[in-house]
Hints:
heterodimer; A: mainly alpha; MetI-like fold; 2 domains; 10 helices; B: mainly alpha
Amino acid sequence: MSxxxxxxPGPVTRRRTLYGSIxxxxxxxxxxxxxxxxxxxxxxxxxxxxxxxxxxxIQRLLLRGLLATLEAAGIAMLLxxxxxALLAVGALSRRAWLRRPVSLWVEFFRGVPLxxxxxxxxxxxxQAGLDISTYxxxxxxLTLYNSAIISEIFRAGILxxxxxxxxxxxxxxxxxxxxxxxxxxxxAIRLMLPALISQGVTLLKDTSLGFVISYSELLRNGRGVxxxxxxxxxxxxxxxxxxxxxxxxxxxxxxxxxxxxxMSARYGKTVTAPSEVTxxxxxx
Amino acid sequence: xxxxxxxLPLFWxxxxxxxxxxxxxxxxxxxxxxxxxTFRVSPVPTLRAAGTGYVETVRxxxxxxxxxxxxxxxxxxxxxxxxxxxxxxxxxxYHAAFFCEAVxxxxxxxxxxxxxxxxxxxLTFGQSLNLIVLPQAFRTVIPPLINVVIALTKNTSIASxxxxxxxxxxxxxxxxxxxxxxxxxxxASAAFYLVITVPAGRLAGVVxxxxxxxx
Lengths: 284, 215
């Protein structure tokens, strides 16, 4: 909350706030109540409907989906970080012939939809004679897309360090690569850790696009369950999936905010992910 | 290359659909997001909690799952919507959370002196928010808002999986029909997206440097 917006309230304002609170709460309860009544009238709260979530076969299917989601997200994050680091080194290079193509790469992959890149892996690469599984199509798309964003995070992290650091390192005779490796990267990594974690959250959420190319991740498996059991069961199954996603992502976002607080308290202002909608770690 | 030129009219139609989705959803999401942001900074605890709850829930849910709820769950409650309307609802609901956070960080960037001055001349909370804070906040907040619009533009592509015939959907169909021209067709589609996102990104950069007031 922002404390600058209002003075410390006196007794009259406190009473008014209380009334406002009650009125606002009542309004929200009415909205939720109408929604709940609608849901109840369609039998959305029937125990029998929600019991599907206790069926072991369904639980196993959803769990397998979750593992597939986490696996694709983990590998894609790793590859995107490797590629992003290479791109960042290119972007920071003093040679124009290295900088130009890198900035084109970043601009291109930041500007096109992720889904188009995933479809490129799924439909385009087989045309080029590279027949890959849906898993690798998804990972390829996620890696290409996130490499651009992560390289920007890396670059911002390195540039946020005081100039004196690289000047001092060069003054004692380190080569450019050594300056980066020994002096700049170890310091910058702390400043970009929160942004990297929140980009990881975004990547994890984006893994759900694997649904479009039938990669059997959490959402696809949930859809399979609903198609098998009937549309009525979409309510419990998708709610369960939402809870899993929200739990995982909120947990990771919390870690991002926690590292952000720690790192900015110790080492100064951290880097925010550039020009991207990220979950968590929002600048307050 | 021929496949691209022959199908330019189809691409153009898809592009218009993408543009329509972007504009309508951006306007709705910005309105909802601004309301949520005022909730989040309001002195009333229940409204604050409601705003925070909305943002935290939506921000941690994949957009695809939001589409699932609108497209597959709402019909179960006898709420039948067209594909386009469903897509607009899903995109607006999702991006409202991000617009809210952008506006809120803008509100928090207005300096305390402005508000103290507003209060000292006797403006109420609503007046000082409407007359003093929001007009200033919107200026600092323009670059982040543009960035949310860019993300929204790219995310309209997800509507292709839920029946809306927009740019990505057109691309998908054309690639299925002309398999050997897959890569040129996809590059053409990418070019259409870049026509929106790259200038918008540049604009955000320019505004960030020039128009926005440094505080």
